[in-house]
Amino acid sequence: MGSAKTIHEELTDLDEVQSATLDSNTKSATVTADKTVQTPERLTKMVQATGDCKTWTVYNIES
């Protein structure tokens, strides 16, 4: 769970992200954020740059 905790902290530290829900089984995240500022692709790159999280993906941004 260490990776998920780190990812959650990185995502929720972003000003435009209100919340993040992570699923360790599928290595995916659903984020509540401003869609005009963030995209799943941009957030996925940020997540994958966090430690040993190359296999994680942000699939959905809700607003």
Give your account of this protein's structure.
The protein is of the alpha+beta class and about 60 residues long. It has one domain (about 1-60): GMP Synthetase, Chain A, domain 3 (2-Layer Sandwich), CATH 3.30.300. Helices cover about 30% and strands about 30% of the residues. It is built from 2 helices and 3 strands, in the order H-E-E-H-E. It has helices at about 1-10, 40-50; strands spanning about 15-25, 30-35, 55-60. It has a 3-stranded mixed beta sheet, covered by helices on one side. Strand 1 (about 15-25) and strand 2 (about 30-35) form a beta hairpin. The N and C termini lie far apart (about 25 Å). The relative contact order is 0.26.
Describe the largest sheet: 3 strands, mixed
Mean residue pLDDT:
86
- Do you know the CATH topology? GMP Synthetase, Chain A, domain 3
Number of helix segments? Answer: 2
Secondary-structure-derived class: alpha+beta
Strand content: 25-35%
The beta-strand count equals 3
| Unreliable stretches | none
Major beta sheet, strand line-up: 1-2-3
Morphology call: globular
Return the CATH class: Alpha Beta
N→C terminal distance: 26 Å
Helix content: 25-40%
Tell me the domain tally: 1
SSE order: HEEHE
Radius of gyration: 10 Å
Helix-strand blueprint:
Elements: H1 2-12, E1 17-23, E2 28-33, H2 40-48, E3 57-62
Parallel strand pairs: 2-3
Antiparallel strand pairs: 1-2
Which key phrases capture this entry?
63 residues; alpha+beta; GMP Synthetase, Chain A, domain 3; three-stranded mixed beta sheet; 3 strands; globular
